[in-house]
Write a structure and sequence with these properties.
Blueprint lengths: L6 H4 L4 H4 L13 H6 L6 H12 L7 H9 L5 H5 L6 H14 L5 H15 L2 H16 L2 H8 L6 H9 L12 E2 L7 E6 L4 H4 L1 H13 L2 E4 L9 H6 L2 H14 L7 E4 L2 H7 L10 E3 H8 L11 E4 L3 H4 L6 H8 L5 E3 L14 H4 L1 H18 L3 E3 L3 H14 L4 E3 L1 H11 L2
Parallel strand pairs: 2-3, 2-4, 4-5, 6-7, 6-8, 8-9
Antiparallel strand pairs: 1-3
Helix pairs in contact: 4-7, 13-23, 17-19, 21-22
Length: 416
């Protein structure tokens, strides 16, 4: 049977992409779920075999298939290990889209996900309102009472979402243009993300400040939307494409030198080879190092571990630049973190939907962090920041969890 004849059975599964896998197994030891379960079906190689089987009509799209596709963290560590260049992230997203197309996870769950991702995460106006409500909930003391009384315990997902909420902070409401400071090096557009402005505003402000201090004029297009990563991960490529279309219209590539992100997940989604913006996207650490970092005059006296966000390391291939930023800060001692390249278990909304596996991976990370005895841990993705911070709070560790540019901004401010 020819490959093209598998469309009816495989539907949205990227069948041609599954053929790139030669089943060598080099990916297997790098897979977090395989490390925990030891099951071949829970490895990238095993999951690709299942995808190919469904596409060929040899394997049913049943509960086992659904479970394995959604148990995957999509961390893409297998991509870094793969000698054949298999784009596993795209494959698992295509499989989830086919699951969704067939309604194999249930209509109610699908409807709730669509409502949350399309109507809340995909709408800046709704997100701003939701952010205001959350800050009021936290600052009023209501969150403390809810936690003490365990009122959310019967609602597992809500309880887990409440546990990872960072402390309330000022939302990021920047001017549309931030002028460059000192000699002007270029003009960049800042991709603010959907969650960062509401829950991690100081990290966004630090990003804009650091870029400006390094001679970049920073433009913030008000029409930009969510990158669509969460939509792709959940099996909603149509929702993701609608957001991509809005972003393609919002960012004028002829007016800027680059589009800068500070979120690993957003950067990986925007740098997808099929997107028109891909070639112009840079992580903030990359553009600062490429442009020649202006070393701050102030000091930050901290011992800091760096943890690699999966979608920065594996999705974008950025490893050295964040470490170089930290090493350039006077007074800061960077400490190697055991397992720094291992997934922390955040993985978008995975920590909400798969608390067991997510918790095991987070426990490893916290054990490694405890062993180092550092003052802070830096990582460049909102989900990772919130996940690790929740683990730090639960373990009672006196460790700051920050974005690398926040430490850089502190050093600049200390030198003013």
């Amino acid at each position: 049977m020819a490959a093209g004849e598998h469309g009816a059975a495989g539907g949205l599964i990227d069948y041609e992409g599954t053929l790139d896998c030669v089943h060598c197994g080099l990916c297997v030891p790098h897979c977090p779920t395989y490390q925990e379960t030891g099951r071949e079906a829970s490895s990238p190689r095993g999951r690709i075999y299942l995808m190919r089987g469904v596409a060929e009509g040899r394997v049913p799209l049943d509960e086992v298939f659904v479970r394995e596709m959604h148990d995957c963290l999509a961390c893409r560590a297998c991509e870094s290990a793969c000698p054949a260049g298999v784009r596993y992230g795209q494959l698992v997203e295509s499989a989830r889209a086919e699951i969704d197309r067939r309604g194999a996870r249930g209509r109610l769950r699908r409807a709730l996900e669509r409502l949350l991702l399309r109507r809340v995460v995909g709408s800046p106006r709704v997100l701003r309102a939701a952010g205001a409500v959350l800050r009021a909930y936290q600052r009023s003391g209501l969150q403390d009472w809810v936690r003490r009384l365990g009122l959310l315990r019967p609602f597992g997902g809500l309880a887990r979402a409440d546990a990872i909420l960072p402390p309330p902070s000022a939302p990021h409401r920047p001017a549309l243009v931030r002028p460059a400071r000192g000699e002007r090096r270029g003009r960049v557009a800042f991709f603010t993300g959907c969650i960062m402005p509401e829950l991690l505003g100081p990290a966004n402000e630090a990003t804009v400040e650091v870029l400006a201090r390094n001679g970049f004029e920073v433009v913030i297009p008000p029409e930009q939307r969510c990158c669509g990563a969460l939509h792709l991960h959940s099996g909603d490529p149509l929702g993701a494409e609608r957001l991509r279309a809005r972003n393609r219209a919002a960012f004028r590539l002829d007016a800027v030198d680059a589009i800068v992100t500070n979120s690993a997940g957003c950067g990986a989604a925007l740098r997808d080879p099929g997107d028109a913006l891909a070639d112009r996207v840079r992580d903030v650490s990359e553009i600062l190092i490429e442009g020649g970092l202006r070393v701050p005059e102030g000091r930050v006296e901290l011992r800091v571990a760096y943890d690699d966000p999966c979608h920065l390391l594996h999705g974008q291939g950025v490893r050295d630049a964040p470490r170089m930023l930290l090493d350039a800060i006077p007074g800061l001692e960077r400490v190697d973190l055991p397992g720094a390249t291992d997934c922390c278990g955040a993985a978008g909304t995975y920590n909400l939907t798969h608390p067991g596996m997510s918790g095991k991976l987070l426990e490893r990370k916290i054990d490694a962090l405890r062993a180092t005895g550092v003052d802070a841990i830096a990582t460049g993705n909102p989900g990772c920041i919130m996940q690790i911070a929740a683990g730090v709070r639960a373990a009672g560790l006196a460790v700051q969890v920050v974005h690398p540019v926040e430490l850089l901004a502190r050093a600049y401010r200390a030198g003013d």
